[in-house]
Specification:
268 residues; alpha+beta; Alpha-Beta Plaits; globular
Length: 268
């Protein structure tokens, strides 16, 4: 039997999702706990790989078991897991669907605050700025859906067979006093460092260090910028994963402190 598990996690204490020797990972924490509960070695397969200190407000993994269980697995997992990992749903699946390869779309959100806020430490990235050029940033964000080759915004493009990403949605939101920002992007796939690199270039536009036309030229030329400075990991969230057979809304409570008020569409 195959099960999909719907979870969320705060990535601050982990070196990413993937289990690797000598590091603390979300995958290993869950596998160790699940193996104890099911009383057999259990391997899980995640819907993707988040980097160190990156969060997920929606994430799925699957696992297989030959043994039936007659208890509330989600309840037991939440009881045993660390407080920074939450299980929302355990779903028995038909056949052998794959949590990673069957996903048709993933969405990410990146949060920034420009005024110091002790309650956002580790949840949003702090970039002090008196005033960002939000119009320029929004114009650059709007351009993203016009292109599908993101080679210029990838840390290591040569490791991929191709760098084509079909970005279906890209938006920039702010709060009323424009001290907090949320960059939202959806695509069928993402490249290594892609979102954090794009966000870094958007901040360069906001600070007057890069023009919108120069930003677009990277997409046109497919040439990697001379300087790539990805933004901090802590502001990035995997926020939605969609399957042809499974489309669950993210649980709103996880990131409510971040999304509250950061829903103003920047006017043209």
């Amino acid at each position: 039997m195959r099960y999909f598990v719907h979870i969320a996690y705060n990535g601050n204490n982990y070196r990413g999702w993937q289990k690797l020797p000598g590091i603390v990972s979300v995958q290993e924490a869950i596998e160790n706990m699940l193996s104890q509960i099911l009383k057999t070695a259990t391997t899980i397969v995640g819907c993707g790989r988040t980097d160190a200190q990156v969060h997920a407000s929606q994430f799925f993994f699957h696992f297989d078991t030959e043994n039936e269980f007659n208890f509330d697995l989600a309840f037991r997992m939440n009881k045993c897991l660390p407080h920074d990992i939450t299980v929302y749903d355990v779903i028995q699946m038909e056949g052998l669907p794959h949590a990673r390869f069957d996903a048709i779309q993933r969405s990410y959100d990146y949060y920034i605050h420009t005024q110091k806020d002790p309650y956002l430490i580790g949840l949003s990235s702090y970039y002090p700025a008196n005033k960002l050029d939000l119009q320029g940033m929004k114009e650059a964000v709007t351009i993203l859906t016009n292109y599908n080759d993101y080679r210029s915004f990838c840390k290591s493009p040569l490791k991929y067979e191709h760098t084509i990403c079909h970005v279906s949605d890209a938006q920039l939101f702010t709060n009323a006093d424009q001290t907090r920002l949320r960059f939202h992007i959806s695509s069928n796939r993402f490249l290594a460092g892609m979102i954090r690199i794009i966000m870094g270039k958007l901040l360069e536009i906001g600070n007057g260090e890069l023009s919108v036309s120069q930003f677009e030229q990277y997409l046109k030329s497919k040439v990697t910028p001379e300087t790539i400075i990805p933004v901090y990991a802590q502001g990035l969230y995997l926020s939605k994963v969609t399957y042809p057979y499974l489309d669950l809304p993210p649980k709103p409570l996880f990131s409510s402190i971040l999304q509250r008020g950061v829903d103003v569409i920047i006017p043209s």
